[in-house]
Amino acid sequence: MVEASNFIEQMINEDLAEGKVTAIQTRFPPEPNGYLHVGHAKSMFVNFGTAEKYKGKCNLFFDDTNPSKEKTEYVDAIRADIRWMGYQWEKEVYASDFFPVIYEFAIRLIKEGKAFVCDLSADEIRESRGTLTEPGTESPYRTRSVEENLRLFTEMKEGKYADGEKCLRAKIDMSSPNMNLRDPVIYRILHATHHRTGDAWCIYPMYDYAHPICDYLQGVTHSLCTLEFEDHRPLYDWVGYSLGFVPKPRQIEFARLNLTNLVMSKRYLKKLVEDGAVHGWDDPRMPTLAGLRNRGIPVPAIKDFCERVGIAKANSECEISYFEACVREYLNAHAPRAMAVLDPLKLTITNYEGSEEVDFDVNQTDENAGKRKILFSKNLYVEKSDFALNPPPKYFRLKLGGYVRLKNAYIVRCDEAVQDENGNVVEVKCTYVPSSRSGNDTSGIKAKGVIHWVNAETASPVVVKQYDYLLKDAEYAGQDFSERMNYDSEHLLYGKAEPALLDAPDGEAFQLMRTGYYKKCTEDGMLCLSEIVSLKDNFNK
Ligand code: ATP
Ligand code: MG
């Protein structure tokens, strides 16, 4: 018996103990109407993860009952994203594979008096549904004979009617306290070309009716979905009982993952892409899995995040900084270190000639990572922000007359700041302390500040990309985001990087000392470093 670590596993354990099921089958059920986002990573974590834990199986189930919004492009992207996450699906299944069976089941419901063809319009159906406090009114078409229903439903299928002219409704209970049970529509007419079945069908089953059938036909034992479907469970069960499903799949709901500063719904993400607010679905600022991949976010960090957030019964909002903390933690342990200067200021050491190699820890948090050599010379670049002409109190970086350590090299004293005609500092001149070499410092000088540098004689120019959030405020984007969009969320800087970065493979993540985690890439033949996450931890544990 598997030890349960959340309420879903507890329920599964009960079902196993009672002998209701013997092997676990789940499914990950995206609708191919857009790209997957980090919320879907959570759903995958739950569906694939649970199956894995029970040595069961998880299918990839495309919920393609809505032909006007679905595309093959999305199917392909979804597949690629799941593979990238490292999950393997057992079978690839489409709701559309089951259209004929779903149709046959509808015929059965009609024959058993459990469904009827209704001529009311969508508006009329909505108006007659009643409210939470008042029962609905029964459709005048509810009492149609089985024969008439069969004839009309067949005619619907044959394309005799226009969109919306008729629909098939389950005959349940117009006074049920659960609105979903008030004779819900289970088939609608839609003359639209489906991305897989083409024009074979002009009636399509509704999600609430199709989903339990598809689950059953796939042998799903536990249909794990998000909380908004909780109120739909009685209908899910009604379909299962009415059609005599044994064993009947069990729907269990868990909380959606909501993250601050992010727009997560596919509808909104699509709009961002269509409006040109981002470069595409895989823009590094997008919360899509394609975006995260392009950003350089490692898969184990995403999984770790999903695990830590946990599987809860109640919806809540998670701070984006928590996600970033998980990414940072992973990269801190795995990303090699490198030095790059984003906003270069020339530093010349007036009493140094020639060059020498200094040792540099590949990753100081990992003893086994070893060291590499970096070439040091008199001509360096440092960050402009690491020098202050008029330093505030307790400023330990470069200031006139002050000592500072150049990381893994020597202590230097800043002697002179060269200014241009506008008073901008364009170069600092320093003297180094020969006895202060890192690892063998006998100088006795205490330099409180340590700054990073690159060797100007070997440095490579680099384009650095930095990102802000797409939304200006932290609130979760349930509502219209158009006024909250941050249109200035991508920044380009032109810096200098140590040449070792040129040899690294594209896609590799580095910790740039004192700056952040960046992904190396090459764009138009140019070295490019694209921000993954800053070094600064905003997360308040
Ligand atoms: P969106 O509202 O973004 O379009 P969706 O729920 O319509 O999302 P689907 O393609 O239907 O997207 O989702 C596939 C599965 O992923 C569903 O079971 C859904 O419940 C789950 N899912 C979607 N968003 C989240 C989320 N933020 N957290 C957890 N699971 C999610
Ligand atoms: Mg959906």
Give the key terms.
541 residues; alpha/beta; Rossmann fold; Glutamyl-tRNA Synthetase, domain 2; Ribosomal Protein L25, Chain P; seven-stranded mixed beta sheet; 25% strand; binds adenosine-5'-triphosphate; binds magnesium ion
- Count every beta strand, where a strand is a DSSP E run of 2 or more residues: 27
User: pLDDT average, as an integer?
Assistant: 95
- CATH 4th-level superfamily of the largest domain: HUPs
Coarse structural class? alpha/beta
Unreliable segments (pLDDT under 50, ≥5 consecutive)?
Answer: none
Based on CA atoms alone, the radius of gyration comes out at 31 Å
The name of the CATH architecture of the largest domain is 3-Layer(aba) Sandwich
Major β-sheet annotation: 7 strands, mixed
Plain-language structure description:
- This protein has three domains: 7-254, Rossmann fold (3-Layer(aba) Sandwich), CATH 3.40.50.620; 259-339 and 460-541, Glutamyl-tRNA Synthetase, domain 2 (Orthogonal Bundle); 340-455, Ribosomal Protein L25, Chain P (Beta Barrel).
- It is α/β, with parallel strands linked by helices and 541 residues long.
- The mean pLDDT is 95.
- A hairpin with a 2-residue loop joins strand 26 and strand 27.
- It has 13 helices and 27 strands.
- The strands form seven sheets. Strands 12-25-26-27-23-24-13 form a seven-stranded mixed beta sheet. It has a seven-stranded mixed beta sheet with strand order 21-18-19-20-14-17-22, with no helix packed on it.
- Helix 2 (38-53) crosses helix 11 and helix 11 (299-309) packs across helix 12 (320-334).
- The relative contact order is 0.10.
- It is elongated and about 100 Å long.
- The longest helix is centred in the N-terminal third of the chain and has 16 residues, at 38-53.
- Bound molecules: adenosine-5'-triphosphate and magnesium ion.
